[in-house]
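ok so i was messing around last nite and threw this chain in just to see what happens. nothing serious, just curious
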Amino acid sequence: GCQALITTTSIERDVEADLNTVGPKEPIVPVSDAALPDDIEAEIGLADASTHALLQAVATDPRARGFVVGEETDDGGLIEIAWPDSKVAVLIDGQVAPDGWTARPATDWDATTLLDALTKGRD
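result:
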């Protein structure tokens, strides 16, 4: 069968100084039972099933939505779920992240610790 990996990026942080903000600067975190955007749900669907609940929980915070499923490292390795800007990763099946990354197996993360790793220094 055919497979495709589609990723998107945002330049919002790069142009933030050019934007005239109306309202609070920090995003409003939706309640945990709020529906996730379709593109985020689709990306979660690409990840290993063992990571779905974790991703759904953390993605309720818009700051945690910049993840990539199936990130390839410079040495040809694979990271199941990566936040390249934050250098944070969720690993499965013995995967190894590059030096300098905060990376743990999926079973060692919970939504709180993952969100803390993603947002440290960016509150």
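not much to say yet. The mean pLDDT is 83.
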